[in-house]
């Protein structure tokens, strides 16, 4: 299996975000990639640095205004008198009315869903290189690979067409899906991160050619709160092409694997030409975000379950935060996937 990782993504080093009214250390740190790389190499896989594409492939799912904001925000922010070290929004428009703002504080509010995706000096570069990893994995699949894994950092599945959020800036899974869609009539995205893949759902909400399926902790009590509910099925031409499978908080292997089997069956029934797996590892019981309670063996079983699907597959790394088990979780998943 080909693995893609760009060392430049370490340039994104967020410091803090606001949680329950407190400024706390940001969990989406470069050490994550080091731990995930250890797992990849332990499986005998050798990551390669992907080709650089710039913003081109991102335009398939993101707006030019948003991509412009990402590339310009840090410089404009640092020029403000008294600016803090990271772009963190403090005003938010009511979407649906109002005018696109010119000032960077206004643009930050417009393009950032929450305070959990701070933009620092290396963020734009890192996000583009993470997207390059996703594009390379999709291209490997288009070239005939059965499986390819993009070790993306920062992750992507909370990013909408024009909005960052939840540690995510560019939606790597959606970018990979769009890339696969250039060759295949139908593509599916299967998201197993503990958080609902709200950005991916939003991007493809009105499209019938891309199925989005997400298994996650119940948003009634967990981020992203505003969506991820079972009744959200898509709209217009996309009605029926979104499936949310929320689980009660604290659910373990049995409920999670049953939901994954249901989701995988929906993916196969859609008859896509290729699949993107948004591979979050934060459903594990040891994850600091503590939404579900899946075991390491549960992730091995998930790898087997997903690996049994005969469709070609590009995997993008989503969440999974710092814990003593992070390497072991990925090792178990990849072992299951590759042995299926
Ligand atoms: Zn997550």
UniProtKB/TrEMBL annotation:
The keyword Calcium does not apply. It holds the Pfam family Hist_deacetyl. Its cofactor is Zn(2+). Residues 28-336 form the Histone deacetylase domain. Keywords: Hydrolase, Metal-binding, Zinc. It comes from the Bacteria. GO terms for biological process: epigenetic regulation of gene expression. GO terms for molecular function: histone deacetylase activity; hydrolase activity; metal ion binding. Belongs to the histone deacetylase family. This is Acetoin utilization deacetylase AcuC. It comes from Rubrimonas cliftonensis.
């Amino acid at each position: 299996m080909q693995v893609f990782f760009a060392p430049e993504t370490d340039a994104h080093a967020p410091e803090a975000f606001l949680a329950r009214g407190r400024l706390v250390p940001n969990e989406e740190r470069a050490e994550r990639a080091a731990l995930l790389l250890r797992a990849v190499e332990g499986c005998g896989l050798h990551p390669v640095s992907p080709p650089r594409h710039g913003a081109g492939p991102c335009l398939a799912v993101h707006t030019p205004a948003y991509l412009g904001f990402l590339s310009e925000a840090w410089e404009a922010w640092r020029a403000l008198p008294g600016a803090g070290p990271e772009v963190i929004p403090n005003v938010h428009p009511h979407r649906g009315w109002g005018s696109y703002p010119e000032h960077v504080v206004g643009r930050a509010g417009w393009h950032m869903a929450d305070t959990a995706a701070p933009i620092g000096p290396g963020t734009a570069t890192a996000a583009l290189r993470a997207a390059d990893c996703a594009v390379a994995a999709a291209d490997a699949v288009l070239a005939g690979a059965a499986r390819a894994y993009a070790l993306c950092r920062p992750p992507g599945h909370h990013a909408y067409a024009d909005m960052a959020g939840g540690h995510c800036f560019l939606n790597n899974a959606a970018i990979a899906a769009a890339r696969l869609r250039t060759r295949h009539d139908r593509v599916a995205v299967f998201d197993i991160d503990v958080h609902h893949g709200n950005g991916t759902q939003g991007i493809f909400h009105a499209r019938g050619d891309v199925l989005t399926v997400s298994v996650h902790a119940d948003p009634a009590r967990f981020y992203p709160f505003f969506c991820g509910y079972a009744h959200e099925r898509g709209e217009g031409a996309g009605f029926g092409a979104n499936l949310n499978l929320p689980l009660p908080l604290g659910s373990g292997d049995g409920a999670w694997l049953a939901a994954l089997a249901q989701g995988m069956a929906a993916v196969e029934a859609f008859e896509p030409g290729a699949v993107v797996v948004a591979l979050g590892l934060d459903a594990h019981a040891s994850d600091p975000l503590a939404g579900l309670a899946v075991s390491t063996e549960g992730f091995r079983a998930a790898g087997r379950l997903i690996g049994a699907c005969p469709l070609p597959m590009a995997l993008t790394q989503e969440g999974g935060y710092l814990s003593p088990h992070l390497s072991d979780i990925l090792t178990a998943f990849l072992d299951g996937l590759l042995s299926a």
